[in-house]
Amino acid sequence: MDIKALEQKFFALNQKLYNEAKDPLPSHGPWHHLKVWQNAKKLAKGKKVDWKVLAAACFLHDISSYDYKKVGNSFHKEDPKRAEKILRQIKFPEEKIMNIQKSFLKL
């Protein structure tokens, strides 16, 4: 899958999860994730990066905020587990999942 298709897939997934959420944190919805991705692309331009890992990290980094009432301000701690589940569901390359999870822990 090319990076544009992956971007569209992650954005659509974000919209679906956000719309299905009972108590999402409004400031961390799909448009937040898209803006993070757009900024990351600018910062990484011309550098050697794994664009698929970067896209996944950008679109999934605050994914637990969609269940804010349940997880509260600790939603960042939940992100690696939730991202792993989502990435496995969409058949993301297994060897890249751990790198994405590690990126969340550095936030």
TrEMBL record:
Report the superkingdom from the record: Bacteria
Task: State the InterPro entries in the record.
Answer: HD/PDEase_dom, HD_domain
Residue ranges of the HD domain?
32-99
Its protein name is HD domain-containing protein
Native source species: Candidatus Falkowbacteria bacterium CG10_big_fil_rev_8_21_14_0_10_43_10
The root-end lineage is: Bacteria, Candidatus Falkowiibacteriota
